[in-house]
Amino acid sequence: MKITDKLDAAKGETLFSLEILPPQKGKKINDLFAVLDPLMEFKPAFVDVTYHPEEMIYKRRPDGLIEEAPLRPRPGTVGICAAISYKYNVETVPHLVCVGFSKEETEDALFSLCYQGIENVMVLKGDEKNHLKIGKTNQHKYASELVDQVANMNKGKFLHEETLNEMETDFCIGVAGYPEKHFEAPNMNTDLKWLKNKVDLGADYIITQMFFDNKKYFDFVDKCRKIGINVPIIPGLKPIDAKYQLKSIPSRFFLEIPDELTKEVEKCKTISDVKQVGEEWCIMQSKELKAAGVPALHYYTMSKSDGVVNIAKAVL
């Protein structure tokens, strides 16, 4: 079922959803199932699975010289989506990214997803930081271009005229929104203009970057509505579970952590204390958002379940 159909069928009830990472290359998928098993109690409406391009690693050769070699550290997104759907009977949403994938590779992945009956995709630009050396001469530069490719496939338009056009795909397209502005945008108005362009091209719903101040989400939704973005906007949430995240999250995701939360985390003496503070803050956020009637609460698990389980028990 499409995500938008699930949201419509909920008739205003706030749904519960997750994002997970594929296992690291060489690890068993059972490690991922162990993360998901306790979360299935809360009947997630859908599970996002991230998509990872190759990274460049450095290996020492027998002659002592160092050589570069490409490695995809977390492969298998398409297969993992199929495995999760089969095991749990839950909708899965594979991510598609521009970085590190040619247009042809993207088209092939979309055909594979279509053949497996997967109806939803999350379209993102992707993180360029670790992949600059592995260039693709025919990759999309912006997420809007990738949205356009998926939307064209939904109309039976493929990259090459040699491809038979006896079918049309029918993907529901999700895109990312940034309550605190995407770091590449010069200002919020420009960022919102880019977001509206993705919606105009065919995006069906938005999931936001994580935030720790609900006012930023509510302000973001208001601004979207004022410029004609009327698709569902799902808030993305993550509990802080380590002190170092006070620095790593703002620097990596270009967002602010409220002063009150920062002070409470800094007071903590143990990892357990930090997790408790992070969960309590996320519970507070979740309850307020649910009371406001948001379409769903979407949790970035980073493939760890214990914190989200505690939050779900308190909120759902």
Keywords:
two-stranded antiparallel ribbon; 18% strand; 11 helices; 10 strands; single chain; 316 residues; alpha/beta; 8-stranded parallel beta barrel; TIM Barrel
Structure in a nutshell:
It contains 11 helices and 10 strands. The protein has 316 residues and is of the alpha/beta class.
Structure description:
The protein is an alpha/beta fold and 316 residues long. The chain has a single domain, classed as TIM Barrel (Alpha-Beta Barrel), CATH 3.20.20. It is 41% helix and 18% strand. The strands form two sheets. The protein has an eight-stranded parallel beta barrel with strand order 1-2-5-6-7-8-9-10, surrounded by five helices. A two-stranded antiparallel ribbon has the order 3-4. The longest helix is centred in the C-terminal third of the chain and has 21 residues, at 271-291.
Write the topology of this structure.
Blueprint: H1 3-9, E1 15-20, H2 29-36, E2 46-49, E3 55-60, E4 66-71, H3 77-88, E5 91-97, H4 103-115, E6 120-124, H5 143-154, E7 172-177, H6 188-201, E8 205-210, H7 214-226, E9 233-237, H8 245-253, H9 259-267, H10 271-291, E10 296-300, H11 306-315
Parallel strand pairs: 1-2, 1-10, 2-5, 5-6, 6-7, 7-8, 8-9, 9-10
Antiparallel strand pairs: 3-4
Helix pairs in contact: 5-6, 9-10, 10-11
